[in-house]
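pasting for ref. prot 1 ->
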Amino acid sequence: MTVFLQSIPILTATADILIKQSVERNLGESDEKEIMGGRVILRKVYNEGFAFNILEKRPKIVTGVSCAVGAAVFLYGQFLMTQKKRVLEKTGIMLASGGAWSNFFDRAVRGRVVDYLAVKTKWKKAQAVTFNIGDLCIFAGALSVLAGRLLYKRKKR
């Protein structure tokens, strides 16, 4: 089980990086393609800051913080791997780690993160939000870690 869990960051980061490369090659910045029965929009958007381009004018700070947070997530993941059970937390931290690696790779190599997914909705502001699989992994991972921590604390009582 540990080997499988430890492969999650490599698999998720690799998949996201490969998809980003494909998006870079095959989509123009104004192109949009509907996929998954029209429920998801594929587009190319560059993000030079954190989520929603926060601190986009401070790329060194963004890259430094991304690196530090990614390292902290990785170290916490290594600590968790030494613990018995706690599978939900371990899975979550590995997902978050893969997403962090992928986005850090983009910042280090491209100087910006490539986002490419949007959800089609009648709310135009929500539909304008574009993200990538790495972002989804960070979000799902954070929720899994939180849920796992809550369950772990509850069982300890």
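and prot 2 ->
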Amino acid sequence: MEQTNEMMIEFDSRSCNESFARVAVAAFMTQLNPTLEEVADVKTALSEAVTNAIVHGYENEIKKVTVSCSISGQVLTLTVSDKGVGIADIARAMEPLFTTKPDTERCGMGFAFMEAFMDDVQVKSAVGQGTAVTMKKRIGRIAGEYHD
């Protein structure tokens, strides 16, 4: 039976805490002996999810963002959650170039980047209750195949 290791951090929804989350998750995943590319992929996807929580979930109000991580075998699972405004239409929100803030520098590629850098991305949300983005990535590939 595979052992699971878990961690959770909670921080204020300030953009300066995005880098804190990136470093914490990168440190946690070192136990899997990831490549630099794998670390960069996870950090990029995590940045997008945390930024979405801060900018869209809380609309720049200062509240709490939670990042939880688990490792089971070679699979890293990350969940970024907020208790913000929620997403009314998840499928539409996940379309490339869609943004709810077209008057800002947002390009609407957050979910597309998450999907490009992670193996699986799931979004659960309820209007007025918040959003949870769960992403998975298998660490340790050989010639395009998984190994344990």
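The chain has one domain: 4-138.
The chain is about 30% helix and 30% strand.
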